[in-house]
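Technical note accompanying the year-one report. For the benefit of new consortium partners, we illustrate the data format agreed upon in the data management plan: each record pairs a sequence with a structure-token string. No post-processing was applied to the example shown here.
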Amino acid sequence: MIRALIHNVEGKWWLLIFVACLYGGLAIINMTLFQESVTFFWQTFTQILPTVIIVFGLMFIFNIFITTNMLVVHLGHSKKIRGWVIAIVSGIISSGPIYMWFPLLSDLKEKGVRDSFLAAFLYSRSIKVPLLPMMIYYFGFAFTVVVSIYIIIFSVINGLVVRYFMKNSQKEVNKV
């Protein structure tokens, strides 16, 4: 029965079980150190929790109200700043593994979304909203803001570079 239970535990739970065993062992060996580590965890958790709740709440709201058709309309062939803003903001708030976004991005490209906006979306995914509270905690608010601004600026530069090379590659294809 224990073997069947162990076999059915998914890989994501093994880390939790391992850490719980480590803390249990620490509690047996050194109760003072165990209490200090739990206290430190609780203090860190309570400092970060409000920001995490706000971040996940905003991500939830964006996922409800932003549709693929809205993105196509605003990220089409226009060169307006609104397209850049939507590409960058949607890249920042997007979550999950990148390979899960490739089919959607391919679909958006087929519907007319510009390559520069897709590149800006992919580049701006470097800003991980759920990790921002932890980054602020460890590196400070000013550092986090400066790095995030640089990522946003370079996502636009990256998009412009992609647009330049894609235009040149289309010219080469048309020559042949």
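Partners are asked to follow this layout when depositing records. The chain has two domains: 1-48, 66-175.
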